[in-house]
Amino acid sequence: MSGNQLVIFDTTLRDGEQSPGASMTRDEKIRIARQLEKLRVDVIEAGFPAASNGDFEAVRAVAQVIKDSTVCGLARAAENDIRRAADALKDAASGRIHVFLATSPIHMEKKLRMTPDQVVERAVQSVTLARSLRDDIEFSPEDAGRSEIDFLCRILEQVIAAGARTINIPDTVGYNVPDQFGRLIRTLIERIPNSDQAVWSVHCHNDLGLAVANSLSAVMNGARQIECTVNGLGERAGNASLEEVVMAVRTRRDFFQCDTRIDTTQIVAASKLVSNITGFPVQPNKAIVGANAFAHESGIHQDGVLKNRETYEIMRAEDVGWTANKLVLGKLSGRNAFRQRLRDLGIEPDSEEAVNAAFARFKDLADRKTEIFDEDLHMLVAADAAAAEQEHFKLVSMRVQSETGETPSADVVVVAGTAEQRARAGGSGQVDAAFKAIESIADSGAELQLFSVNSITSGTDAQGEVTVRLKKEGRIVNGAGADTDIVVASAKAYINALNKLHANLQRAHPQV
Ligand code: KIV
Ligand code: ZN
Questions:
Q1: How far is the CA of 204 from the centre of ligand 1 (A)?
Q2: Which atom of ligand 1 has the smallest separation from the CA of 74?
Q3: What residues contact residue 96 under an 8 Å CB cut-off, 6+ apart?
Q4: What pLDDT, in 10s, does the model give residues 201-212?
Q5: For residue 193, how far is its CA from the centre of ligand 2 (angstroms)?
Q6: What are the CA-CA distances from residue 37 to residues 62, 231, 266 (Å)?
Q7: Rounded CA gap, 448 and 440, in Å?
Q8: Using CA positions, which residue lies closest to atom 4 of ligand 1?
Q9: d(CA 299, CA 303)
């Protein structure tokens, strides 16, 4: 790796998944991993294998299909975790074990109940064990942003000597500010005698909205790997956002004097896929991937852009994957035009059957909607892939009624397991009635925490994208659904969330 290559380490599938409600199935992780590979991410952190059997299987499955990115598994500094991570990565073309152990006084004393000497000893033992199982080892002193510098220098020198090849400095609680964080990285590199034997990495959380700024400040001070997530997904306020980091460095290569391998034209597709799978919508004014990120509303701006786009644009929308030609297909478009459009959008369904299934759904949609936009196609293919997964509940049909002065009602037919069941319920509106009817079949007892509707494109015939968040016994799941009829989209989203609850993916949290 040359000194001006910035390694992009994506942790959407691990830290991103730690956002309440963002847990993903094995197949969802594989779909996102494939998109990250297309994006040319260097390292994909696929999960925390010791957390649960589901996580182990997901990391193993990702390791088996990904060939052009390194696949990484997280492990606490404990023998069982490290061996589980190594097992999950057995089939990886290139695999990395990421070992972490807290180093801040508060974490060592209150959480680990270990002395600093014990922490150093455990870190060295763990890295030595990991290195005996794989060559590519990363070590993170958790809560480094609040750790003492002398202690960090001592422990990091020893884990490098034990074989760690990447040293990752996390600002676990998002407490640091850019100038301070940059200085921390520079000091560590300057003071640790064997620092040149490791790649220096950073992992910043966004509690103060500074994750990207802190990461970039670290790059200015010698860091050559950034850990980040698509759409900035992650614990609490999230992690540094991949798209912002990558486009900052690409747009201001003159300033940062380094660059990534990322194929930026795949950014929007990655953002949409992650948002669709997790049910976390992207705010319209989000940099790079928000719907308004390249929209010039004011007359002065529009006039300037028409005369010369560089008057107000520092990046081109098409360079991050927004397509200029938004109107795409209609009712009469054939299979070839459909397939070509998918290719133009960087969407490659896994098989001929997947193309056929998506085409059938496209025809169905075109019957109900005169113009089909790129956004509709993204949604269509995502819905198909989701439907291909194991589902316990399936919506067969529904009928809703409402009339001024009358109580709205819904009749639903749902397959639960193998049995088809019918239910009728009334509610304060059609969506409320539909949810009550479905719940009377599912009997989940879950609490509805969020219901949100977004229009995917403009016009009253647009597809509505619905997100539903359910909570049961401390578990939170998000469900997503799309349809031109928002009551149907809502029912699909509710059923999607019920399926996730039903899958009952229990997992441990790495930092607890
Ligand atoms: O935020 C953090 O400290 C982490 C570590 C496991 C790297 O996610
Ligand atoms: Zn983290």
A1: 8
A2: 6
A3: 43, 70, 71, 72, 73, 89, 134, 136, 137, 138, 166
A4: 999 999 999 999
A5: 27
A6: 11, 16, 10
A7: 14
A8: 172
A9: 6
What is the per-residue pLDDT across 105-154, written as a single tens digit (0 to 9) for each?
Answer: 999 999 999 999 999 999 999 999 999 999 999 999 999 999 999 999 99
The residue contributing the CA closest to ligand 1 atom 1 is: 172
Q: How many residues does the chain have?
A: 512
Instruction: Classify residue 34 as exposed, middle or buried by CB count within 10 Å of its CB (0-12, 13-18, 19+).
Output: middle
Domain at 7-278, CATH class? alpha beta
Nearest CA owner, ligand 1 atom 5 = 142
Q: Is the CB of 140 under 6 A from ligand 1?
A: yes
Q: Which residues pair with 44 in a beta bridge?
A: 10, 71
Run of H or E including 84: helix 79-88
The answer to whether the Cα torsion of 42, 47, 49, 53 is positive or negative is negative
- Find out whether 136 and 147 touch, Cβ atoms under 8 Å: no
* DSSP state for residue 159 in the 8-state scheme: H
Ligand 1 proximity of 203 Cβ (cutoff 6 Å): yes
Residues 394-415, mean pLDDT to the nearest whole number? 95
Least confident of 53-67, 297-311, 407-421, 490-504: 297-311
List the beta bridge partners of residue 43.
9, 70
Range with top average pLDDT, 231-245, 308-322, 328-342, 376-390: 231-245
If one counts every other C-beta atom within 10 angstroms of the C-beta of residue 113, the result is 8
Of residues 258, 268, 274, 270, the one with CA closest to residue 226: 258
For the domain made up of 389-503, give the CATH fold.
Double Stranded RNA Binding Domain (3.30.160)
CB distance 171 to ligand 1 below 6 Å = no
CB atoms within 10 A of CB 309: 13
Q: Is the separation of the CB atoms in 129 and 162 below 8 Å? A: no
| CB atoms inside a 10 Å sphere around CB 157 | 18
Alpha carbon distance 185, 190 (integer Å): 9
For residue 352, report the distance from its CA to the centre of ligand 1, in Å. 40
Q: Is the CB of 172 under 6 A from ligand 1?
A: yes
41 three-state secondary structure: coil
Q: Which residues of 73-95 are buried (b: 16+ CB within 10 A; e: fewer)?
A: bbbbbbeebbbbbbebbeebebb
